[in-house]
Amino acid sequence: MPYFLVLLLSASLYSGAVFANAPTSCDNNTDCIEVGRWDLGFSLGYGNKSNPLKDYKDIPIYVVPTLAYYGDSWFFDNGNIGYTLAEGENYTVNLVTTFSHDSAFFHRWDPSNIFLLSNGGNQTAISSVRSTFSSPTVEEPAIGKLENRNFTYLGGAEAFIYTRFGIVHASVAHDILDIHGGLESKLKWFYNIPLDKWNFEFAALLDWRSDEVVDYYYGVRSSESLYWNQAYQAESALNKSIEFTGQYVLTQNWNLLLVARYTDIADEIVDSPLVEKDYTTTYFVGAAYRF
């Protein structure tokens, strides 16, 4: 599913909610959304989203809401709007919109972070940089205050393929607000294992970004550093992630919830002087309530 952090957690809360061919009625203990009815819920607990940017703070997680509605064709899912073009027993094809996620590392109140409480904001400048070149005698220039890296809205198409070995989700989307004019594509496999009151979901994700996306968020503007503007040249990048979601049913409305994700950041992004780590992690432990 293309939605993370409000995004990953909300989707993980009710995995399977993204399928437009939902049953016409849902038991409160099942992971589905009833067609023609608003689905509301929230999670309370604690978690953390690590920030790979140098001198930027991690993002703590305390409350994660979910808001979704699925009609016969149109659907709304945590800020994402979609329309089902075709569906069958083994597939679904949608037109869909979604938020960008790289901007969330730069802005505490980015839409992807808006429901996450924090004790402090991100830093506004990079005071020093991680070196991508070996030089024992020359100190490389620091980067000054960063210009804004804005969020944008993506629009495109997605397809779900349902097999006995899990579900395959593929999507491609373009920047429809022309913030960076780039393209993103995802390929995800996930598999559910229900065991009595337990439900476990395992997932693997390939997340590709065009060079326009990488350059906009991780490239260095000439106003920030002439040296690094020339030294770092952005290229398209492929991030790789694994995810785990565990749920335990307590009552009709309450579940215990554990979500964990690890992302291996592509070398093309790690080479940026703005980036300090070659990975990012997200976890959340808490209780989920569904109205």
**CATH architect. name:** Beta Barrel
Report low-confidence residues grouped into runs of 5 or more.
1-25, 115-137
In N-to-C order, the SSE pattern is HEEEEEEEEEHHEEHE
Strand order of the largest sheet: 1-2-3-4-5-6-7-8-9-10-11-12
**Major sheet, described briefly?**
12 strands, antiparallel, barrel
Number of strands: 12
Radius of gyration equals: 20 Å
**Residues in β-strands, percent:** 35-45%
Count of all domains: 1
| End-to-end C-alpha gap | 23 Å
Shape: globular
Work out the oligomeric state of the chains in this entry.
Answer: single chain
How many H/I helical runs?
4
| Strand-pairing-aware structural class | mainly beta
Mean pLDDT: 82
CATH class: Mainly Beta
CATH topology: Outer membrane phospholipase (ompla), Chain C
Helical residues, percent: under 10%
